[in-house]
Design brief:
alpha+beta, two-stranded antiparallel sheet
Length: about 80
């Protein structure tokens, strides 16, 4: 199945994925503290499972505590 035309350009032709560390306070209440009281139920045992999962989020620059690391570069087509 052809998704794009055989002629023309696809832009941007490159993308990069970055990994950065953020401070613990950013998102901790939403992701981890949430399990202390889930609609009146104490489900704090699930915190360990949540910590095993990775998650993607947008954070403000002031919460970034490490230098960005490029872990994936995708080059699609030559122009």
């Amino acid at each position: 199945m052809l998704i794009v035309a055989r002629v023309g350009c696809m832009l941007p032709d490159q993308s990069s994925m970055y990994l950065v560390g953020m401070d613990a306070a950013c998102g901790h209440k939403d992701r981890i503290g949430y399990w202390d009281d889930v609609y009146g139920l104490k489900m704090s045992a699930l915190k360990r499972e949540v910590l095993k999962e990775s998650w993607v989020t947008v954070v403000k620059h002031e919460h970034v505590v490490t230098a960005p690391y490029v872990f994936k570069v995708c080059r699609w087509f030559g122009v």
